[in-house]
Every structure is written in C-alpha cells, then in structure tokens.
Write a structure and sequence with these properties.
Blueprint: H1 3-10, E1 19-25, H2 34-43, E2 47-53, E3 66-67, H3 72-78, E4 87-91, H4 93-106, E5 113-117
Parallel strand pairs: 1-2, 2-3, 4-5
Length: about 120
C-alpha cells in the first residue's frame, strides 16, 4: 500500500499540514506497519494515527484502539472538520466504493477524494 511511505514523508516534523491516518484491518496481526505507524504518531504531534480493527475478538493480541469499520462517527470523533481534508484511501474495490459513498453522503466532493483499488485481498 502507498500509505506508509506517504505517512513517513508527511510525518516529518517541519512540514506544516496535519495528517490523520485511519487504518482499518481485521486484526492487529493483519496490520502491516502497525508498530511503525503508531511510533510515527508518538514522535510527531502533526501526525495522528487512528487504527481500527473490525474483528479484534478473533485476535490473539489485545487491541485498545477503535473497532469496526471507518464510518462517519469515527471521522467526527477524530477530525476537527470533515469538510476541509483531502481524503486518500486505498483497498479492495468493495471498501473503496463504500468509502466513496460514505464521503459523498457526508457532502464531500469528488475533487476532495483520491483513491486506489487493490485486488487480491
């Protein structure tokens, strides 16, 4: 996925914009780069990592973060304003379609969305 390199660049302390990364997986052990992304948040106040697991009960690891799919309520809990960000998202086609619909329902314009579909999950 393109997000770890993007997060590394954007999490650099001298860059002005804030970056919020919502990262959804089934279980913590399925989440590539999880420890690195969490560490980036601890080392840079401009980078906010919001991990969510949709099946944490099937994990051997404990999970203390968000649970469930990324929905409007989760965005509202973590973003200061839903209208101003540019939303980047990537994943299986079904997930990207669901994210587009959700964002459109919120009132986010297509021009504020950047997405990529990954097959084979």
């Amino acid at each position: 996925p393109p997000f770890p390199p993007m997060a590394r660049d954007a999490a650099h302390p001298r860059l002005p914009p804030r970056l919020y990364l919502f990262y959804s997986n089934r279980r913590p052990e399925d989440a590539a780069f999880l420890a690195e992304l969490q560490e980036m948040e601890w080392s840079n106040p401009k980078f906010r990592f919001i991990g969510t697991m949709v099946e944490p009960e099937k994990s051997v690891d404990c999970w203390w973060g968000e649970t469930g799919f990324i929905r409007r309520g989760m965005l509202e809990r973590h973003l200061p304003d839903l209208d101003s960000p540019i939303y980047y998202f990537a994943g299986p086609p079904q997930m990207t379609m669901a994210m587009r619909r959700m964002l459109e329902d919120i009132g986010i314009r297509e021009q504020a969305m950047r997405y990529e579909e990954f097959y084979g999950y």
